[in-house]
Design a protein that fits this description.
Largest sheet: 4 strands, mixed
Helix content: 10-25%
Strand content: 25-35%
Radius of gyration: 15 Å
Number of strands: 4
Number of domains: 1
Oligomer: single chain
CATH class: Alpha Beta
Number of helices: 2
Order of helices and strands: HEEHEE
CATH topology: Dodecin subunit-like
Structural class: alpha+beta
Distance between the termini: 40 Å
CATH architecture: 2-Layer Sandwich
CATH superfamily: Flavin-binding protein dodecin
Strand order of the largest sheet: 1-3-4-2
Shape: elongated
């Protein structure tokens, strides 16, 4: 059984539960992101054509006034406008912006990997 979860089938509440339990959640074409207790950034998933590939990992912070899931999705989708071949996103931190005792924003910090296409 595949231990990865598809965020499109999860509600925000069940996504938070999955993240708390340490289940990895796959990014599919910069559409979904999720959390993992162990770092999946150290080694992207193996593929037959990946023998000599190099991946760069960057950190992003997404914000939303609705949820951490929407904040993560916003970060990945925005990065997808300028970066090609996004592979994995890992939630590394979540926090809330509080003003006058009220939640103003949800912030999700992600590590995102993409295929490195450096010059020769």
């Amino acid at each position: 059984m595949d231990s990865r979860l598809d965020l499109e089938r999860l509600s925000a509440a069940s996504c938070s539960e999955a993240a708390s339990a340490g289940h990895p959640i796959a990014v599919r074409g910069a559409q979904s992101v999720g959390a993992s207790a162990a770092s999946s950034m150290d080694a992207p998933p193996m593929e037959a054509s990946m023998a000599e590939s190099v991946y760069k990992v960057i950190e992003l912070v997404g914000t939303s006034d609705v949820s951490w899931e929407k904040a993560a999705k916003a970060a990945v989708e925005r990065a997808g406008h300028s970066l090609r071949d996004l592979r994995i996103a890992e939630v590394v931190a979540q926090d809330i912006v509080i003003e006058n005792g009220t939640v103003e924003a949800y912030r999700t910090k992600l590590k995102v990997s993409f295929k490195y296409e450096g010059g020769s």
